[in-house]
Specification:
The structure holds two protein chains of two kinds. Chain A is α+β, with helices and mostly antiparallel strands. Chain A is built from three helices and seven strands, in the order αβααββββββ. Chain A starts with a helix and ends in a 25-residue tail after the last strand. Chain B is globular and about 75 Å long. Classes of the chains: A alpha+beta, B alpha+beta. At the A-B interface, helix 1 and strand 1 of A face helix 5, helix 7, helix 9, helix 10 and helix 11 of B.
Chain lengths: ~140, ~700
């Protein structure tokens, strides 16, 4: 067999294995973006998937308990009760009226159980420096505004 | 001063246009004076952009709060040191900074080669000026850093508002590394423009010979070195500032910086195929094009708001410009390639599957797969929305699943590749070169397994790391022995001589060793531990071998009232003996009402004790401390330093061997000189 064919077979095996890993990895971690009004219209099967939802934190709704933080997100007047159960401390920018992005699953009782919360504050400060270091590292989204 | 700055930038814009027009005219007419004036216009751009940059620095240092950009990114209390960082902390300033670095590269290239390559340089000049023109357009007309805050008064006269103070610099950026990380990374990004210009120029001008490939390789190494340092500095900054215990989260911005690094790395390897064997010419040209395009694409992704990133929440208007530029560059590259593709025909074919050539092919294949995986993961929300109308994102498990095996395969090639012969490698030489290192690696794995190295990837990583280190070590040793047997020098000076005689080769080995350390550092994550607890003064936490005792906590103002801080004083003990006092801190910055974390790290070669002040418990008002034990992280940073040193070494010119003329007075004890003579002769790798 000529060497190009041998190399070709090797390449196919490698790329094939990696693609398979990619598919598995994607299935494990894929997260759907939804808006709060959309949630009501979703099919039951879709409601069980991991998703990301954003909204504004309703003022006065943040209630901290041991091991979890409850709050209500709103978008276009529709509320969503969220219960944050992650171990990371909530970001500093997570306050009343801030814009928050939560990631997790919808529980049977309609509460959204979030494992991750990102927030940016609605203060006068311009959100994250748009041009800052494209590249470089960031880190846990939790920690940034 | 703002007028001065804008004026300098406008002039730079005009000079760039002139450099393009005169350059094209020069290529057509071959008139030396026109060519000279085009080159000088290109160099003038650098001086003008420098003036623009200087005036922005001046505006920051004088606290000119009539300037929109200064108000947005600085305040009076900000330490002077960080006023420099503020220059590139926002969209407009960082784009100007980009232009400035690019103009310095362009100046260096035009100046260094002013008397060389008269066929090639005019093309290079035009292409570089074209890229500069794009960025200068943004600097002047789309995102000018010199905008004054003002409004038209009723009498039709501009009223300028001056704020009493600025809104301050984002606290996350108020960290020493933020002053060096962006310049490094930007120097990497902009630096890849130079290889791009040379590759495209050689293709357009059908430049004969392989000379341009040497130049391109050299400049790619410079850009690659900055990019590597920039990525690692960014990772270190994330580690030390964000306080979540890690340094890499597969955020789109991180991915954007990694992609050109991957293709750049691929090019640095495959370019040798072209130098030595005249193969892969088409591939190489496209690798250089792709690397440059990925630099621009990365900038586009993070600045346009296309992909939501923690770095780039801010949406901006420059997205379409970048997209347009990418399409234009791609069009030019494709056109040049189609027109002149016969110029890139290959001289040789692959001779054997066990050869240097094939190791490079696999290296390139796998780096490209990594790049495609990172790119598709980053763009997943965009792609899935286009295809299924559902916006879906993928997280770290996706990236890790694909990239861990890739990383390990690359590590394997790092050990194997450099020792395989060109064309074909015999079984005998395989055994000779790899027998001992492989045994050493397996032995290390066999020792480590009972000691707790149970994670599959971590174990493989250890075996391969030992294997690669031994092959690199044996290469140095073998070469040094030859020199010693001929010259009688001691082994250390023999290693130094050896390295200086073929800097490129041995510098490359040093880089490989640095990469091994980086891999070991990353594999340490498998053994990470962490614990969070409410710690009243006097309470204790046990983490691994360490006992943390909370001594006290307090609130105190920062210098100049820039912030107020809450901090805990925590004593770390190991085996009952105090090792260090740690002061994890949480700062509240006055100007922008944001909080920032200062992590306290006790770092040893074996592990980092990483302590975060996570806030106060809402119920008891006691401080909450989150402590992490991260093994081997220090090797990651150390590896980065070695990579940079190795690249620097590889860029040095070779020193000619002096001892070749020396009498062959073999000491009686030395045995017959074995094979390795070829180390310095046979595998001679060509100088620039």
């Amino acid at each position: 067999m000529d060497n190009r064919a041998k190399f070709g077979i090797g390449a196919v095996i490698i790329v094939g294995t990696l693609s398979w890993l990619a598919v598995v990895g994607a299935r494990e971690s894929k997260t759907y973006y939804h808006t709060i009004p959309e949630l009501a219209a979703l099919k039951a099967a879709d409601l069980r998937l991991r998703m990301r939802v954003s909204g504004t934190v309703r003022p006065g709704s943040i209630a901290r308990y041991t091991g979890r933080v409850d709050f209500v997100l709103e978008e276009q007047g529709k509320p969503l009760a969220v219960s944050y159960t992650g171990t990371e401390p909530l970001p500093d920018t997570f306050v009343d009226n801030s814009q928050a992005l939560v990631e997790g699953k919808l529980a049977a009782n309609g509460t959204f159980v979030a494992e991750k919360v990102q927030a940016k504050c609605a203060s006068k400060y311009e959100p994250a420096p748009g041009g800052q270091a494209p590249g470089g590292a960031s880190g846990d989204p939790n920690k940034k505004s | 001063m703002d007028l001065f700055g804008s004026f300098a930038l406008i002039l730079a814009f005009v000079c760039a246009i002139y450099a393009i027009v005169a350059g094209i005219a020069g290529i057509r007419t071959r008139h030396p004076l026109i060519l000279k004036s085009a080159r000088q216009a290109g160099m003038a751009v650098c001086i003008l952009v420098t003036l623009g940059m200087a005036s922005l620095v001046y505006l920051f240092l004088t606290d000119n709060f009539a300037m929109a950009y200064v108000v947005g990114h600085s305040n009076r209390a900000l330490p002077t040191f960080y006023k420099f960082a503020a220059l590139w902390s926002g969209q407009e300033g960082s784009l100007l900074f980009w232009s400035w670095l690019l103009s310095i590269y362009v100046f260096s290239v035009l100046f260094a080669y002013r008397k060389k390559h008269p066929e090639l340089m005019p093309y290079v000049g035009v292409i570089l000026a074209g890229v500069q023109l794009f960025f200068l357009t943004l600097n002047n007309f789309i995102a000018s850093p010199f905008q004054v805050l003002g409004a038209m008064g009723p009498d039709g006269v501009m009223q300028i508002f001056t704020h009493a103070d600025g809104r301050g610099l984002n606290p996350l950026l108020q960290y020493p590394e933020m002053v060096i990380h962006p310049p490094n990374l930007y120097s990497g990004y902009t630096g890849f423009t130079i290889p791009f210009a040379f590759a495209l120029a050689a293709l357009l001008g059908r430049y004969p010979g392989e000379k341009w490939i040497h130049i391109t390789r050299r400049w790619t190494m410079i850009a690659w070195c900055f990019q590597s340092a920039g990525i690692l500095l960014g990772a270190h900054w994330a580690y030390a500032v964000l306080g979540w215990g890690g340094y890499w989260a597969w955020d789109p911005v991180e991915n954007a910086s990694l992609m050109p690094w991957l293709t750049g790395t691929a090019f640095l390897h495959s370019v040798m195929m072209q130098e030595k064997r005249g193969m892969l010419k088409v591939w190489n040209v496209w690798l250089v094009f792709t690397t440059f395009l990925l630099c621009i694409l990365g900038t586009f992704l993070t600045r346009s708001g296309v992909v939501s990133s923690v770095h780039a929440f801010a949406q901006s208007q420059i997205g379409p410009w970048f997209l347009g530029f990418i399409i234009a560059v791609l069009a030019v590259c494709t056109w040049a390639f189609i027109r002149n593709r016969d110029y890139l025909h290959s001289d040789n074919q692959l001779d054997s599957l066990v050869s240097r050539e094939s190791s490079f092919l696999f290296n390139n294949l796998i780096l490209l797969v990594a790049c495609v995986a990172v790119l598709s993961g980053t763009l997943f929300p965009v792609l899935s929305e286009a295809v299924t109308n559902n916006k879906i994102s993928v997280g770290p498990p996706f990236f890790n699943k694909v990239n861990l095996p890739i990383g390990l395969f690359l590590l394997f090639l790092t050990g194997v590749g450099p020792l395989l012969a060109w064309r074909k490698t015999s079984l005998e030489s395989l055994r000779r070169n790899f027998g001992w290192p492989l045994l050493g690696g397996i032995a290390a794995g066999a020792i480590a397994f009972p000691l707790g190295f149970r994670d599959f990837y971590a174990l493989i990583c250890l075996v391969l790391s030992v294997f690669v280190t031994l092959t690199v070590g044996s290469e140095f040793l073998r070469g040094a022995m030859v020199i010693r047997s001929r010259g009688g020098a001691n082994i250390l000076s023999a290693v130094a001589q050896l390295t200086m005689r073929n800097t490129r080769r041995y510098g490359g080995y040093v880089v490989h060793f640095g990469i091994v350390l980086v891999f070991i550092g990353i594999s340490g994550t498998v053994f990470n531990k962490d614990q969070q607890m409410e710690m009243a003064p006097g309470s204790q936490m046990q983490l691994g071998p360490y006992t943390l005792v909370c001594q006290s906590f307090e609130s105190r103002p920062g210098p100049n009232n820039n912030y107020t801080a809450e901090r805990a004083t925590i004593e770390a003990l190991r085996g009952g003996k105090p090792v260090m006092m740690l002061y994890p801190e949480r700062r509240f910055y006055t100007a922008n009402e944001q909080a920032g974390t200062m992590v306290a790290i006790y770092s040893t070669l074996k592990e980092d004790l990483y302590v975060v002040y996570a806030g106060r418990s809402p119920d008891t008002q006691q401080p909450v401390i989150h402590a992490y034990l991260n093994p081997l992280v220090k090797l990651l940073w150390l590896g980065g330093v070695i990579v940079v040193l190795g690249t620097g070494l590889a860029l040095l010119p070779n020193r000619q061997a002096v001892l070749a003329i020396r009498a062959v007075a073999q000491p009686a004890t030395a045995g017959p000189v074995p094979q390795p003579v070829r180390v310095s002769m046979g595998r001679y790798e060509g100088q620039d």
